[in-house]
Amino acid sequence: MTHHELTVKSIVYGRKRFLKRWPALLEVSELTKSYHEVRGVKNLSFQVESGTALGLLGPNGAGKTTTIRLLMGFMKPDLGSASIWGLDCWRDRAELKEITGYLPGELHFMEQFTGQEFLDLIEGMHGAPQTIRKKQRDLLRALELDPKQRIRKMSKGMKQKLGIIAALMLDAPVLILDEPSSGLDPLMQKTFIELILEEKKREKTIFMSSHHFAEIERTCERVGMIRDGELLAIQDITLLKQKERQTFDIEVSGEEDAELLRQSGLTLYPLDQLKFTIQVTGEQELLWKTLAQIRVRRFQQGSLELEEAFMHYYHSSLRGDNT
């Protein structure tokens, strides 16, 4: 048995011991990949710890899929490095497949197979332990997929479910998912989110790209924002939302209070004579000074959607006024 084979077995079967050695389970350092005509990625650096999920947001062509292909060892980086559980993503790419559940952004199946035949093939490639078969059944039930149908007759959503099942049923400690809920209806998107939350409870390390802001917001602690192949920032989702514009709904006791609010300098959106929405960007000192001077019947902080926070951060970076 080779050194790498021993390493992989210690990862899979001696997880607690290995975690002590590799606290940063997925680590990227100054990762760079260039193409002649297609934009790549430049100087990417980030980490994902055990039991956490990092989501990558950005427009088409920003570098999300290139990043994932580098992590999966499908391409050799020009500069920098990426490692998962201490395995180099390029040099140890064969061993890496043993500990990684992967869902590509573009699914390509053997169309003549039934869904079950495809899943059986994946099972056989991983030794077909009983735990895989049980998890497969649970996933088929959760995603409401009949695997007896031939893949060529499946809709895009059904094929997406099949890809998700193939990635999750292996019970790999690391999940790398490219646009995982693409093609799913809203009900199945919700089910997918619940499945990912269950995986996190089991200390899985998850890296995923997505166009669905709600999906990232529900499943990830941190979000990376990428544009033109460069990482703008890695932000804690809660802090990102707090840092950007926030809204507050307020109802004051009388017209005198309403007039004081109008004259305060705060950004107001009247709802009726005594009710307003207040929008605050950055520091909230003026808000709290104003509230101390008026009688308030009701005051509630509105939730800032991740999509709004991301778009504000993204466009402010284009203007060069984001710190």
TrEMBL record:
<dbReference type="InterPro" id="IPR050763">
    <property type="entry name" value="ABC_transporter_ATP-binding"/>
</dbReference>
<dbReference type="GO" id="GO:0005524">
    <property type="term" value="F:ATP binding"/>
</dbReference>
<keyword id="KW-0067">ATP-binding</keyword>
<comment type="similarity">
    <text>Belongs to the ABC transporter superfamily.</text>
</comment>
<dbReference type="Pfam" id="PF00005">
    <property type="entry name" value="ABC_tran"/>
</dbReference>
<feature type="domain" description="ABC transporter">
    <location>
        <begin position="26"/>
        <end position="253"/>
    </location>
</feature>
<dbReference type="InterPro" id="IPR027417">
    <property type="entry name" value="P-loop_NTPase"/>
</dbReference>
<dbReference type="InterPro" id="IPR003439">
    <property type="entry name" value="ABC_transporter-like_ATP-bd"/>
</dbReference>
<protein>
    <recommendedName>
        <fullName>ABC transporter domain-containing protein</fullName>
    </recommendedName>
</protein>
<dbReference type="InterPro" id="IPR017871">
    <property type="entry name" value="ABC_transporter-like_CS"/>
</dbReference>
<keyword id="KW-0813">Transport</keyword>
<dbReference type="InterPro" id="IPR003593">
    <property type="entry name" value="AAA+_ATPase"/>
</dbReference>
<keyword id="KW-0547">Nucleotide-binding</keyword>
<dbReference type="GO" id="GO:0016887">
    <property type="term" value="F:ATP hydrolysis activity"/>
</dbReference>
